[in-house]
Each structure stands twice: as structure tokens, then as C-alpha cells.
Fold this protein.
Amino acid sequence: MKIVFATNNPHKLDEIRKITEDKIEILSLADINCFEEIPETGTTLEENALMKAQFIKDKFGFDCFADDTGLEVDALDGAPGVYSSRYAGESCNPQDNMEKMLRELHGEENRKARFRTVIALLLKDEQHFFEGEIGGEIICEKRGTAGFGYDPIFLPDGYDKTFAELGNDEKNRISHRAIATQKLVDFLLRN
Ligand code: IMP
């Protein structure tokens, strides 16, 4: 089986290729010569993931899947959610995003949050969705250097280390994305 993952993120490709081994051939956007900006203008993770997969299916004709992830913070009514990458503005970086979140949550007691990943799969003209989530809390300062995005301020439930302190191997075993990816792979191997 051959399927396109609508990403060029080497970490995501690596992660899923490790799980699928040689059972499914995962092609990246570069592998199919897609170098265009794919629209991500949805207002939910589901919409964005589907939009990306549909773009590839329509333009290139491949069966395809795409993911979208957000950090949902209870005290911020679920924000930044689908807007997580640009929480502090259009041209912000992860440090700006974390600083803004720490400011917004200053003095807040309820620091509960979750990462949620949605994967949309277009296979043989059918749509399927797979979801993974991990609960935790936003701590009051940054800790750790591994990972990316909000990892230094996210403490997963049941752990005393942030995602950035756990390191990639351990994080990739328990993460929102790992859970969604495993569900996708189980489905693909059955179909
Ligand atoms: P994407 O949909 O995977 O591009 O994720 C959107 C944004 O969510 C990223 O730019 C990060 O800010 C944040 N994010 C997604 N996954 C993670 C993660 O595993 N750790 C920390 N931040 C993440």
C-alpha cells in the first residue's frame, strides 16, 4: 500500500514510518512534487486536517491523510486550539506563544490543558477521522529543552517531567499524535 502524508515535517514522517515499518509506503509532499502552500483556513482541527487531505486528493489523485493539532486550555475556553501555531500573532515563534500563554494564565489556578490531534484520511473515496489526546497542565515556567512548540510548559498527567524534559522517545510513546497515529496505522493495516 502507498499513501501520501500531507506533510514535509521530518519528525512526523519518521514517527509514522517507524510504526508502519515496511508494511505501508508513506510518501511525503516532496515525494509527490507538491511544493505549494496548502490552505489551512478551517476553524476546527477536523476541518483543517480534512482540507489538507482533500487538497492533495483533488490535485494529485492520491489516497492521503493529514493531521492537525492544537493545545486546548480550559481556563482559556479551549484556546488556542486550532490557532496554536499563531497564538501570539502571524509571525510569532514558539517562545512568543509560550510567553503569551504564561502571561494569560498568570495567577490562574485551573491550569488544565490537553493536546489534541485529529488525522483525516481519504481512502478509496471515503473519509475517516482518528483522534488522539493527552491531558495535563500548563506549569508556571519553562522546563526542558527537547521537543518543540509548547513542550517546555506542558506537564502530562501522571508525570513529573514536561514534554521537553521527557525527551522525544518517551514523548513519542505517549503523545496525542502517537495515539492518533497508532489508530490510523491499525486501520490502514486492516483495510
Ligand atoms: P501542527 O498541526 O502539528 O502543525 O501543530 C500546530 C501547533 O500546535 C504547532 O505549531 C505547535 O505550536 C503546537 N503543537 C503541536 N504538537 C505539539 C507538540 O507535540 N508539542 C508542543 N506543541 C505542539
Residues 68-71, 84-85, 115, 147-151, 163, 175 surround inosinic acid (CB under 6 Å). The helical segments are 10-20, 45-60, 94-104, 163-166, 168-174, 176-190. The two ends are 10 Å apart (CA to CA). Strands lie at 2-5, 25-27, 64-73, 80-81, 112-123, 126-138, 154-156.
